Amino acid sequence: NHQPLSALTSTGSSCAARFTERPPQRTPAERHLTALPVHDSFTAADGDNLNELLQYLSASSGECLPSPDVCLANPADCGPIFSCTLEDRLLRTIGNQHQREQMYARQFNSSMAASSCNPAVSRPPASVFHHSRCLLQHLGFFNADKIKTFRLLNKNDKLRRELKHLDSRPYRETHKIGVVYVAPGQDDKRTILCNTKGSAAFEAFVSAMSWEVDLSTHPGFMGGLQRNAATGATAPYFATSAMEAVFHVSTRMPTVEETGIINKLRHIGNDEVQIIWSEHDRDWRRDIIRTEFGDVMIVLYPMKNGLCRVQILTKPDSKLPHFGP
Question: Which of 278, 260, 116 is nearest to 202 (CA)?
Fold first, then answer.
């Protein structure tokens, strides 16, 4: 049975009217908006319960309104700024960035773990006078106007003595840096300095910024450590052509009763920079290891995601400029 088009049109209109019609809603004055609407006070004439609550909040709490003349029950306006075209462009940008990151990871096989630091490979000089010629060249003595200013020195005991003292002086900038390991739950000086080993993350951190040297045969900067194993058999060391650094690691130095603790404090306490690797739940306090030196303390708190939270502590009377994260 086919119905005429007019009948279908009228039927559709009645259905649309039935779904679009909303129950009449009362004005704010009729709803007594001085009291919070509750479930028992709603009736069929109130319409949407959420709409009723939003209108009450708009009338009683003006600080919640996005603007003075906009009710909370009105639909939010997204505005013309964020369009569909802009959304598609943003999604394409994020997708391209994700593809580039995956391509970089496959190409270099990168990892968040720090790699071990190894010493640079040295080459023997081309001649016995190679370093002397390089020094004279850097000082500018090979220039045409200065080549005639050389004067031969008298070879005597005084010259030999001065040359011996000159050879004993470090020709590179030297630094001593203290490194202290704090295990979970440790908050006193004696317990912390009695640690003889650290966690795997701590050892990876130390190996990433230095390499181990044998103190008995090490020809470079010692940083006050002894060759007779009284301060440990090995020590972390880092060097370039312009500087040398020795790390006084608390777990590397032997702990023999009270003497070992005093020996550790004598080295670590006199370092101008101290690195604290703390796996304790509470933050590090500067008064745990009291020292007159230690201008800067770099406190590292390892987190579960492999990163570290960094805290910089300086002496109250220090004149160092602000630096750090």
Answer: 278
Q: Is the pTM of this model over 0.90?
A: no
Of 310, 308, 324, 309, nearest in space to 112 by CA:
308
DSSP secondary structure letter of residue 148: G
**Residues 221, 237: Cα–Cα separation, whole Å:** 9
pLDDT digits (tens, 9 = 90+) for 277-315: 999 989 998 888 887 777 889 999 999 888 999 999 888
The upper half-sphere exposure of residue 211, i.e. CA atoms within 13 Å in the direction of its Cβ, equals 12
CA 263, distance to chain mean position in Å, is 32
Residue 70: both structure tokens together: 């906009």
Q: Give residue-wise pLDDT tens across range 42-57.
A: 665 556 778 888 888 8
* Cα separation, 100 vs 98, whole angstroms: 5
Q: Measured between alpha carbons, how far is 9 from 15 in angstroms, rounded to an integer?
A: 10
Residue 27: CB partners within 8 Å, gap ≥ 6?
A: none
Q: How many helices (H) and strands (E) does the chain have?
A: 8, 7
- Owner of token pair 């004149």: 319
Region of 233 on the Ramachandran plot (φ > 0 left; ψ -120 to 50 alpha; else beta): alpha
Structure tokens at 205: 């951190």
Q: How crowded is residue 127: how many other Cβ atoms within 10 Å of its Cβ? A: 9
> Tokens for 229?
């194993």
CA dist., res. 276 & res. 296, Å (int):
11
